[in-house]
């Protein structure tokens, strides 16, 4: 399947967001032509400590509706990205100091909590979601990190708990990959179907 066709196949599943990684060190780096995607799906550019000017140019070039920032971007950096939604990523393992979120409260639209690992995203395993019992904010967040078909029961259990109150979206990636950047469409469809039926 051609890459363009593959993206369109993922888009046909009608996710709310569709991510494109703009990070040269990633095997998933996007450097292709952007296919037509339904306007109901927000195109998200994923960046890691990229120059602010480059981020803005990429937003304009690909008509992105959101950016996901996986590096050490400061609140001041985030606040300078205008006219798109800003998702700031924080990595967690077994504990997390939520005080670091406070400076970002007005600088971004969402937080994303991912698993702390060797790579800035796509490490393929979950963090301890119990940490989110201490989430102090009312800002909606994305839950990420190693979520796949085998995690459906864990996800459903989490979504029934108080700490999921501000969980806005699930971010899935590596557990559904055939190879970096290419998703298993059938497994993605199963995941979406199971969650839709059970929630």
TrEMBL record:
Family to which the UniProt record says this protein belongs: Belongs to the TrpF family.
UniProt keyword Plastid present: no
SUPFAM superfamilies recorded: Ribulose-phoshate binding barrel
InterPro entries reported for this sequence: Aldolase_TIM, PRAI_dom, RibuloseP-bd_barrel, TrpF_fam
Protein name (Swiss-Prot/TrEMBL): N-(5'-phosphoribosyl)anthranilate isomerase
HAMAP family given in the database record: PRAI
Residue ranges of domain N-(5'phosphoribosyl) anthranilate isomerase (PRAI) in the record: 6-192
UniProt GO MF annotations: isomerase activity
Record carries keyword Cytoplasm: no
EC numbers for this chain: 5.3.1.24
Top-level class of the enzyme under EC nomenclature: isomerase
Keyword entries, A-Z: Amino-acid biosynthesis, Aromatic amino acid biosynthesis, Isomerase, Tryptophan biosynthesis
Source organism per UniProt: Winogradskyella litoriviva
Catalytic reaction annotation: N-(5-phospho-beta-D-ribosyl)anthranilate = 1-(2-carboxyphenylamino)-1-deoxy-D-ribulose 5-phosphate
One Pfam family here: PRAI
Biological pathway: Amino-acid biosynthesis; L-tryptophan biosynthesis; L-tryptophan from chorismate: step 3/5
């Amino acid at each position: 399947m051609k890459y363009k066709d593959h993206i369109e196949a993922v888009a046909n599943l009608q996710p709310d967001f569709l991510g494109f990684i703009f990070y040269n060190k990633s095997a998933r780096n996007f450097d292709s032509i952007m296919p037509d995607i339904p306007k109901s799906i927000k195109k998200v550019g994923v960046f890691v400590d990229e120059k602010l000017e480059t981020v803005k140019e990429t937003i304009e070039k690909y008509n992105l509706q959101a950016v996901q920032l996986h590096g050490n971007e400061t609140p001041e950096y985030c606040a300078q990205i205008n006219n798109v939604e800003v998702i700031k990523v924080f990595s967690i393992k077994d504990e997390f100091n939520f005080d670091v979120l406070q400076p970002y409260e007005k600088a971004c639209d969402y937080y994303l909590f991912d698993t702390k690992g060797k790579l800035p995203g796509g490490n393929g395993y979950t963090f301890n979601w119990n940490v989110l019992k201490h989430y102090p904010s009312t800002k909606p967040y994305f839950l990420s990190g190693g979520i796949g078909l085998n995690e459906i029961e864990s996800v459903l259990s989490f979504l029934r708990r108080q700490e999921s109150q501000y969980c806005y979206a699930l971010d899935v990636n590596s557990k559904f990959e055939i190879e970096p950047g290419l998703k298993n469409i059938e497994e993605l469809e199963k995941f979406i179907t199971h969650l839709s039926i059970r929630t």
